[in-house]
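User: C-alpha coordinates in, sequence out, please.
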Protein backbone atom coordinates (compact mmCIF):
# COMPACT_ATOMS: atom_id res chain seq x y z
CA UNK A 1 0.00 0.00 0.00
CA UNK A 2 2.22 2.78 -1.30
CA UNK A 3 1.92 6.35 -0.09
CA UNK A 4 0.27 8.46 -2.78
CA UNK A 5 2.48 11.25 -4.20
CA UNK A 6 -0.27 13.78 -3.44
CA UNK A 7 0.54 13.39 0.23
CA UNK A 8 4.05 14.79 0.04
CA UNK A 9 5.27 17.02 2.86
CA UNK A 10 4.24 20.26 1.13
CA UNK A 11 0.70 19.34 0.16
CA UNK A 12 -0.01 17.61 3.45
CA UNK A 13 0.01 21.01 5.14
CA UNK A 14 -3.03 21.96 3.04
CA UNK A 15 -4.98 18.97 4.34
CA UNK A 16 -4.17 19.52 8.02
CA UNK A 17 -7.39 21.37 8.77
CA UNK A 18 -9.53 18.35 7.88
CA UNK A 19 -8.59 16.70 11.18
CA UNK A 20 -9.61 17.69 14.65
CA UNK A 21 -7.31 18.44 17.50
CA UNK A 22 -8.02 15.84 20.16
CA UNK A 23 -8.74 18.47 22.80
CA UNK A 24 -11.49 19.88 20.58
CA UNK A 25 -13.35 16.56 20.63
CA UNK A 26 -13.87 16.68 24.39
CA UNK A 27 -16.73 19.19 24.38
CA UNK A 28 -18.72 17.03 21.94
CA UNK A 29 -17.64 13.65 23.28
CA UNK A 30 -18.02 13.08 27.03
CA UNK A 31 -16.31 9.76 26.38
CA UNK A 32 -13.52 9.26 23.88
CA UNK A 33 -12.43 5.90 22.50
CA UNK A 34 -8.97 5.50 21.05
CA UNK A 35 -6.38 2.94 19.98
CA UNK A 36 -2.62 2.82 20.21
CA UNK A 37 -0.33 1.23 17.62
CA UNK A 38 3.39 0.53 17.58
CA UNK A 39 5.41 1.64 14.54
CA UNK A 40 6.24 -1.34 12.29
CA UNK A 41 9.82 -1.89 11.17
CA UNK A 42 9.31 -3.78 7.90
CA UNK A 43 7.17 -3.32 4.79
CA UNK A 44 5.30 -6.52 5.66
CA UNK A 45 4.57 -5.28 9.17
CA UNK A 46 3.40 -1.92 7.78
CA UNK A 47 0.92 -3.71 5.52
CA UNK A 48 -0.39 -5.73 8.48
CA UNK A 49 -0.75 -2.62 10.62
CA UNK A 50 -2.82 -0.86 7.97
CA UNK A 51 -5.04 -3.92 7.64
CA UNK A 52 -5.60 -3.70 11.40
CA UNK A 53 -6.18 0.06 11.26
CA UNK A 54 -8.73 -0.30 8.46
CA UNK A 55 -10.68 -2.84 10.50
CA UNK A 56 -10.58 -0.69 13.62
CA UNK A 57 -11.62 2.39 11.66
CA UNK A 58 -15.06 0.77 11.43
CA UNK A 59 -15.35 1.24 15.21
CA UNK A 60 -15.11 5.04 14.67
CA UNK A 61 -12.38 5.79 17.23
CA UNK A 62 -12.03 9.37 18.42
CA UNK A 63 -8.32 9.15 17.68
CA UNK A 64 -5.42 6.74 17.31
CA UNK A 65 -1.81 7.13 18.38
CA UNK A 66 1.51 5.68 17.23
CA UNK A 67 4.38 5.09 19.65
CA UNK A 68 8.03 6.09 19.25
CA UNK A 69 11.04 3.77 19.51
CA UNK A 70 13.83 4.33 22.02
CA UNK A 71 16.33 6.91 20.86
CA UNK A 72 14.23 7.72 17.82
CA UNK A 73 14.78 4.26 16.35
CA UNK A 74 11.34 4.36 14.71
CA UNK A 75 11.19 8.10 14.12
CA UNK A 76 10.65 7.94 10.37
CA UNK A 77 8.13 5.12 10.59
CA UNK A 78 6.19 6.87 13.35
CA UNK A 79 5.87 10.10 11.36
CA UNK A 80 5.02 8.32 8.10
CA UNK A 81 2.47 5.98 9.68
CA UNK A 82 0.71 8.82 11.54
CA UNK A 83 0.58 10.83 8.32
CA UNK A 84 -0.88 7.92 6.37
CA UNK A 85 -3.43 7.09 9.06
CA UNK A 86 -4.70 10.65 8.72
CA UNK A 87 -4.53 11.21 5.00
CA UNK A 88 -5.31 7.74 3.68
CA UNK A 89 -7.71 6.41 6.32
CA UNK A 90 -9.15 9.69 7.57
CA UNK A 91 -8.32 9.01 11.21
CA UNK A 92 -7.35 11.69 13.71
CA UNK A 93 -3.87 10.50 14.67
CA UNK A 94 -1.37 11.48 17.34
CA UNK A 95 2.39 11.01 17.07
CA UNK A 96 4.37 9.99 20.12
CA UNK A 97 7.66 11.78 20.70
CA UNK A 98 10.19 11.20 23.48
CA UNK A 99 13.24 13.00 24.82
CA UNK A 100 15.47 9.92 24.54
CA UNK A 101 18.57 10.48 22.44
CA UNK A 102 17.55 13.89 21.11
CA UNK A 103 19.09 17.33 21.61
CA UNK A 104 16.69 20.25 21.96
CA UNK A 105 17.34 21.49 18.43
CA UNK A 106 16.60 18.07 16.97
CA UNK A 107 13.35 17.86 18.93
CA UNK A 108 12.38 21.29 17.60
CA UNK A 109 13.06 20.13 14.05
CA UNK A 110 10.94 17.00 14.54
CA UNK A 111 8.07 19.07 15.91
CA UNK A 112 8.32 21.45 12.98
CA UNK A 113 8.24 18.54 10.53
CA UNK A 114 5.18 17.10 12.24
CA UNK A 115 3.40 20.45 11.95
CA UNK A 116 4.38 20.77 8.29
CA UNK A 117 2.90 17.33 7.59
CA UNK A 118 -0.42 18.25 9.16
CA UNK A 119 0.14 16.33 12.40
CA UNK A 120 -1.23 18.50 15.19
CA UNK A 121 -1.86 15.87 17.87
CA UNK A 122 1.03 14.68 20.04
CA UNK A 123 1.74 12.31 22.89
CA UNK A 124 4.87 13.66 24.60
CA UNK A 125 6.92 11.54 27.00
CA UNK A 126 10.34 11.49 28.55
CA UNK A 127 10.71 7.96 27.25
CA UNK A 128 12.28 4.76 28.50
CA UNK A 129 16.04 4.27 28.25
CA UNK A 130 17.35 1.97 25.51
CA UNK A 131 17.71 -1.66 26.55
CA UNK A 132 21.48 -1.36 26.88
CA UNK A 133 21.16 1.49 29.40
CA UNK A 134 20.18 0.73 33.02
CA UNK A 135 18.66 4.17 33.57
CA UNK A 136 17.62 7.28 31.68
CA UNK A 137 20.40 9.68 30.69
CA UNK A 138 19.52 12.91 28.90
CA UNK A 139 21.22 13.53 25.57
CA UNK A 140 23.77 16.33 25.34
CA UNK A 141 21.70 19.54 25.34
CA UNK A 142 18.61 17.36 25.68
CA UNK A 143 15.72 17.26 28.13
CA UNK A 144 15.51 15.28 31.36
CA UNK A 145 11.76 15.62 31.88
CA UNK A 146 8.65 15.43 29.73
CA UNK A 147 7.38 18.83 30.90
CA UNK A 148 10.31 20.44 29.08
CA UNK A 149 9.28 18.74 25.84
CA UNK A 150 5.68 19.84 26.41
CA UNK A 151 6.81 23.44 26.91
CA UNK A 152 8.90 23.29 23.71
CA UNK A 153 6.01 21.94 21.65
CA UNK A 154 3.65 24.53 23.08
CA UNK A 155 6.11 27.28 22.08
CA UNK A 156 6.35 26.03 18.48
CA UNK A 157 2.73 25.51 17.49
CA UNK A 158 -0.89 25.04 18.46
CA UNK A 159 -0.61 21.30 19.03
CA UNK A 160 -3.07 19.24 21.05
CA UNK A 161 -0.82 17.53 23.59
CA UNK A 162 -1.30 14.38 25.61
CA UNK A 163 1.04 13.09 28.32
CA UNK A 164 1.38 9.91 30.34
CA UNK A 165 0.08 9.29 33.85
CA UNK A 166 0.95 6.37 36.12
CA UNK A 167 -1.87 5.04 38.35
CA UNK A 168 0.57 2.83 40.27
CA UNK A 169 3.41 5.34 40.13
CA UNK A 170 6.32 5.45 37.69
CA UNK A 171 8.61 2.46 38.14
CA UNK A 172 11.62 4.77 38.54
CA UNK A 173 9.97 6.95 41.19
CA UNK A 174 9.25 5.38 44.56
CA UNK A 175 7.60 8.58 45.82
CA UNK A 176 4.06 8.59 44.39
CA UNK A 177 3.45 12.18 45.53
CA UNK A 178 6.54 13.32 43.65
CA UNK A 179 5.43 11.37 40.60
CA UNK A 180 2.06 13.14 40.72
CA UNK A 181 3.72 16.55 41.05
CA UNK A 182 5.70 15.74 37.92
CA UNK A 183 2.42 15.05 36.13
CA UNK A 184 1.16 18.45 37.27
CA UNK A 185 4.31 20.04 35.81
CA UNK A 186 3.45 18.49 32.45
CA UNK A 187 -0.11 19.74 32.58
CA UNK A 188 0.94 23.20 33.78
CA UNK A 189 3.43 23.35 30.89
CA UNK A 190 0.67 22.94 28.34
CA UNK A 191 -0.64 19.36 28.20
CA UNK A 192 -4.32 19.09 27.28
CA UNK A 193 -5.04 15.56 28.48
CA UNK A 194 -3.51 12.53 30.20
CA UNK A 195 -3.50 8.90 29.06
CA UNK A 196 -2.60 6.43 31.78
CA UNK A 197 -0.15 3.60 31.71
CA UNK A 198 -1.84 0.21 31.62
CA UNK A 199 -3.30 -1.19 34.85
CA UNK A 200 -5.49 -4.16 35.72
CA UNK A 201 -7.23 -3.02 38.90
CA UNK A 202 -9.69 -0.19 38.28
CA UNK A 203 -9.42 1.05 41.86
CA UNK A 204 -5.85 2.08 41.01
CA UNK A 205 -7.19 4.34 38.26
CA UNK A 206 -9.93 5.98 40.31
CA UNK A 207 -7.61 6.55 43.27
CA UNK A 208 -5.10 8.12 40.89
CA UNK A 209 -7.73 10.47 39.44
CA UNK A 210 -8.89 11.47 42.92
CA UNK A 211 -5.31 12.26 43.95
CA UNK A 212 -4.72 14.22 40.75
CA UNK A 213 -7.82 16.33 41.28
CA UNK A 214 -6.70 17.02 44.85
CA UNK A 215 -3.61 18.83 43.53
CA UNK A 216 -5.62 20.71 40.90
CA UNK A 217 -4.95 18.58 37.81
CA UNK A 218 -8.20 19.32 35.98
CA UNK A 219 -7.67 17.97 32.46
CA UNK A 220 -9.20 14.75 31.11
CA UNK A 221 -7.48 11.59 32.42
CA UNK A 222 -8.16 8.73 30.01
CA UNK A 223 -7.59 5.18 31.30
CA UNK A 224 -5.23 3.04 29.23
CA UNK A 225 -6.20 -0.64 29.01
CA UNK A 226 -4.24 -3.54 27.55
CA UNK A 227 -5.77 -7.00 27.05
CA UNK A 228 -3.59 -9.60 28.80
CA UNK A 229 -3.35 -12.08 25.94
CA UNK A 230 -0.84 -14.45 27.54
CA UNK A 231 0.84 -15.02 30.87
CA UNK A 232 4.32 -14.55 29.38
CA UNK A 233 3.28 -11.29 27.73
CA UNK A 234 1.82 -9.92 30.94
CA UNK A 235 4.90 -10.80 32.96
CA UNK A 236 7.05 -8.87 30.45
CA UNK A 237 4.73 -5.88 30.43
CA UNK A 238 4.38 -5.79 34.22
CA UNK A 239 8.16 -5.80 34.59
CA UNK A 240 8.56 -3.09 31.96
CA UNK A 241 5.95 -0.66 33.25
CA UNK A 242 5.53 -1.61 36.90
CA UNK A 243 1.89 -2.67 36.66
CA UNK A 244 0.67 -5.20 39.20
CA UNK A 245 -1.33 -8.23 38.04
CA UNK A 246 -4.33 -9.14 40.22
CA UNK A 247 -4.10 -12.74 41.51
CA UNK A 248 -7.34 -13.88 39.79
CA UNK A 249 -6.03 -12.72 36.40
CA UNK A 250 -2.62 -14.29 37.00
CA UNK A 251 -4.23 -17.58 38.03
CA UNK A 252 -6.51 -17.66 34.98
CA UNK A 253 -3.64 -16.93 32.58
CA UNK A 254 -1.41 -19.52 34.23
CA UNK A 255 -4.21 -22.09 34.03
CA UNK A 256 -4.60 -21.39 30.30
CA UNK A 257 -0.95 -22.36 29.82
CA UNK A 258 0.05 -22.85 26.19
CA UNK A 259 -3.54 -22.84 24.94
CA UNK A 260 -3.33 -19.61 22.95
CA UNK A 261 -7.03 -19.31 22.18
CA UNK A 262 -8.00 -19.90 25.82
CA UNK A 263 -5.32 -17.50 27.07
CA UNK A 264 -6.39 -14.73 24.71
CA UNK A 265 -10.03 -15.14 25.71
CA UNK A 266 -9.08 -14.81 29.38
CA UNK A 267 -7.36 -11.50 28.61
CA UNK A 268 -10.17 -10.22 26.41
CA UNK A 269 -12.81 -11.08 29.01
CA UNK A 270 -10.84 -9.34 31.77
CA UNK A 271 -10.26 -6.22 29.67
CA UNK A 272 -13.92 -6.13 28.61
CA UNK A 273 -15.11 -6.28 32.22
CA UNK A 274 -12.50 -3.69 33.14
CA UNK A 275 -13.68 -1.27 30.42
CA UNK A 276 -17.33 -1.83 31.31
CA UNK A 277 -16.68 -0.98 34.95
CA UNK A 278 -14.51 2.03 34.11
CA UNK A 279 -17.27 3.55 32.00
CA UNK A 280 -19.97 2.70 34.53
CA UNK A 281 -18.00 4.48 37.25
CA UNK A 282 -17.53 7.60 35.16
CA UNK A 283 -14.23 7.26 33.28
CA UNK A 284 -14.11 9.67 30.29
CA UNK A 285 -13.40 6.96 27.73
CA UNK A 286 -10.97 4.15 26.98
CA UNK A 287 -7.54 4.15 25.32
CA UNK A 288 -6.82 0.59 24.19
CA UNK A 289 -3.28 -0.67 23.67
CA UNK A 290 -3.84 -2.86 20.60
CA UNK A 291 -0.44 -4.56 20.17
CA UNK A 292 -1.14 -3.93 16.44
CA UNK A 293 -3.91 -6.53 16.47
CA UNK A 294 -7.59 -5.96 15.80
CA UNK A 295 -9.42 -9.00 17.14
CA UNK A 296 -9.27 -8.13 20.84
CA UNK A 297 -10.30 -4.52 20.24
CA UNK A 298 -13.16 -5.57 17.98
CA UNK A 299 -14.54 -8.03 20.55
CA UNK A 300 -14.17 -5.62 23.46
CA UNK A 301 -15.80 -2.70 21.68
CA UNK A 302 -18.58 -4.83 20.19
CA UNK A 303 -19.50 -5.81 23.75
CA UNK A 304 -19.35 -2.22 25.01
CA UNK A 305 -21.49 -1.04 22.10
CA UNK A 306 -24.09 -3.74 22.83
CA UNK A 307 -24.29 -2.63 26.46
CA UNK A 308 -24.59 1.01 25.40
CA UNK A 309 -27.42 0.25 22.97
CA UNK A 310 -29.20 -1.95 25.50
CA UNK A 311 -28.93 0.79 28.14
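Assistant: Sequence out:
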Amino acid sequence: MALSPKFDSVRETLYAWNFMKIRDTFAAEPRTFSFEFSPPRTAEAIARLFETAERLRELAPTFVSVTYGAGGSTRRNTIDVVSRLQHELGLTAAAHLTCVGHAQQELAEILQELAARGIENLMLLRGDPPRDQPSFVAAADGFSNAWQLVALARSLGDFSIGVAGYPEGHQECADEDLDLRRLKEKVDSGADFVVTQLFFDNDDYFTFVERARAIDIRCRIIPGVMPALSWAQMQRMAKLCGASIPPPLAAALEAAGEDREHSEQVGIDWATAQCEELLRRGAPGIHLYTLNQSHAAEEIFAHLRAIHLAG
